[in-house]
Design brief:
Layout lengths: L9 H11 L3 H23 L13 E4 L20 E4 L4 H6 L4 E2 L7 H10 L3 E2 L9 H28 L1
Antiparallel strand pairs: 1-2, 3-4
Helix pairs in contact: 2-5
């Protein structure tokens, strides 16, 4: 005897789940937001500090729907109305992955500008070492985050079955 499964897509799955347990979306949305806030706090703790704490304090976990002007990085756009994410200043990429040495002199992007900057030794930024604090933190927290969201869905299903 073989086990069969039908793949129906996210909308069909959520429609069926809402028929069985109407509170699933509410509990899952709350859990997603809590997970995003906790992850943002963990990343804030591991973020590098500079002369000010401005970058470190920029981390926040919020609903994607509340930030329509922000772009998702590395993912396709979600159709989940209750999706939550972590937001920070744009320089997170430079800090997370580091930068290569590069010219900062006027016209330094051209061949002549690079030759002039290299000859004078001025206007060359030495680059920065990578200071990973976002992806390692998320990889360490991902399993716990998934279990929190699953627990919220299970709670809604148990409530529905208990009625």
């Amino acid at each position: 005897m073989a086990i069969t499964a039908d793949l129906k897509g996210r909308e069909a799955l959520m429609r069926r789940l809402n028929q069985l347990a109407p509170n699933v979306e509410k509990y899952a949305a709350q859990a997603k937001l809590e997970v995003a806030e906790e992850a943002a706090e963990m990343m804030r703790e591991r973020a590098p500090t500079g002369a000010t704490l401005e970058y470190r304090e920029s981390f926040s976990g919020e609903l994607l729907a509340n930030n329509p002007n922000k772009k998702q990085i590395g993912l396709s756009q979600t159709k989940d109305p209750s999706a939550a994410g972590i937001f920070a200043e744009y320089i997170w990429r430079f800090l997370e992955f580091g930068t290569a040495p590069h010219s900062t002199a006027k016209g330094g992007g051209t061949v002549l500008g690079k030759k002039t900057a290299a000859a004078s030794g001025k206007g060359i930024h030495p680059g920065t070492a990578a200071q990973p604090h976002i992806f390692p933190t998320w990889r360490a927290y991902k399993k716990k985050a998934s279990s929190k969201i699953r627990a919220a869905v299970n709670k809604a299903v148990r409530e529905a079955m208990g009625k």
